[in-house]
Amino acid sequence: MNRQERRRHEKRARRAGRNPRNVANSPAVAARHFEKGELAEAAEIVRRVVRATPKHFDALQFHGVMAARRGHADDAVDAFRAALAVRPQDAGARYNLANALGAAGQPDAAEQSYLGALEITPNDADIHINLGAVQRELGHFNDAIASFRRAIALNPKLVWAHNNLGLALQESDALDEAVGCFERAIALAPKSAEFRVNLARALMRRDRLEDAIAAYRQAMEYAPGDARIRTGLGRALRDNNDLVGAIAAFEGAIRDDPRHAPAHYSLGSALSAYGKFAEAADAFQAAATHDPDDARACNNLGVALLDLGRDDEAEAAFRQAIDINPKHAPAHYNLHAALFRDDDLGPAIDTLKCAVAADPDHDRAWFFLAMCQEQQGDRDAAAASFEKVPLDDNGYNYWLDSWDYAYRNMGPATRVFGSTARILAHAQAAASIDGLTLEFGVRFGTSIRQIASRTDGIVHGFDSFQGLPESWHENPTGDYTTHGEMPAVPGNVELHVGLFDDTLPPFVAAHDGPIRFMNVDCDIHSATKTILDRLHTRIIPGTVILFDEYICNPYWREDEYKAFQEAVATHGWRYEYLAFCPFTRQTTIRILP
Ligand SMILES: C[S@@+](CC[C@H](N)C(=O)[O-])C[C@H]1O[C@@H](n2cnc3c(N)ncnc32)[C@H](O)[C@@H]1O
What we know:
- It is a single chain.
- The protein is an alpha/beta fold.
- Among the domains are: 332-390, Tetratricopeptide repeat domain (Serine Threonine Protein Phosphatase 5, Tetratricopeptide repeat, Alpha Horseshoe), CATH 1.25.40.10; 415-592, Vaccinia Virus protein VP39 (Rossmann fold), CATH 3.40.50.150.
- It has 29 helices and 8 strands.
- The structure holds S-adenosylmethionine.
- S-adenosylmethionine binds at residues 275, 441-444, 446-447, 463-469, 480, 499-500, 521-524, 527.
- S-adenosylmethionine binds next to α26.
């Protein structure tokens, strides 16, 4: 073999990945190990080759590929850099280096390396796709969109390019175009659940909820048992006002994967919205168990427990949320409700200060801070905090208006409370005449169970269980329906099912005596008026009425407040305000002689 022949032979051997200097055949042996999945053996051989011939291009590439496969991204980067030092113009090595840099968490360097590869092979669609992916990661959405479009122009069948273009367009709020991209990806790969989920998400953001629901259902056909997809379906159903369907979907997701925390969390939110607070609390508790870092789940658990009148447990849940995330403004804000005492305002004020420090735009925290400071007599601090509560275009804020009304109408004995449990207990304790105990608006029985637990005799609960008989501002007719489900109530509760107009006349005919205590929780003016009109002869001095939506909602002057004030004018009642609970919007009234 003359010198020229020997050099030709060595070159061929190098190309074939063989070692020209008798570490010979090792890369080929390594390749066989690699194909059999024996990565450690393959890596060891290649390491030996690289040690013996540090500029062996193929061995360095192979070393990099294996390091990347084994998850050693930094080693892979070193190996590809060394390979590029041998052959700076090798597009494959640049591409490999870019991929490794991306995996090593260096997207900027990865982008440069892809661009370098494209200078050598500008028409490589794979490089354009991967370049687009790091550009997305860097938040350079316009560049990413251009890269994906270029990949598609080079190869319109690149299904991932369509999908990724859809994602980048969605991130740029070009939702209709994104929908089109996902549809094209699905046309190319009809069995991909992932593309259908992406389509569903884009459709949801476009408010095309029915289409989103259909897309989720199709995705489920191709990935049955995937809890994430069923959770997505539940969210679409919830947004489409199908709470019952949403709850069933979340429960299904939990059956698919009992540890899927987002399904538990979403189930909790849906159950809360549906009025099933005990079940909601269980769901949030499960979400917090499966994702112990989820401060939101603990916070929402606390809110459900407050609704259930379990204030001490609620306090513990809010504190847990704050332990997880000391800057969780909603948890500080809600904690104040559990801590609120009108004879010791310090703890509530402290936690409200934490809430506004964590979120200076938390309007309600500013409002309640101002309210507490005013009650404490700290006028300057209260004035400064009230200033932070924004007014609408007409210079109005219903929280400020309600509090202004409540504060001006307080007598020496009027109390202020922070939670339903406390105002309810106070109202029932203040009811001292003998007579009937009634609740209007029972739904799933949350409040009537609390009332019954403090009542010796019968508690009469009135509800159609069909929800609102007419729309209530933004709430549509039928809102709060139980879909015919009857609540579980203790033995001393008697339910009177139907519209108040229909159930009250026979009730009044069958039951003598005045009303000792009644909880009015039916929201709308007409229903409240019906109650007060039909029962006015039974409302006597000493009767205590707890209204659930008397103050602090946007239309408070048009609903329960208005119906009561009309009844006062009609029947000439005198009354006193026993308590306000701005946080829950409740107000207790006692009729005076
Ligand atoms: C907000 S929910 C009651 C919540 C309940 N107190 C709780 O603890 O969850 C209002 C209820 O009032 C009922 N309701 C409203 N107007 C009514 C009417 N005119 N006759 C009968 N029920 C009515 C609805 O069916 C609904 O269940």
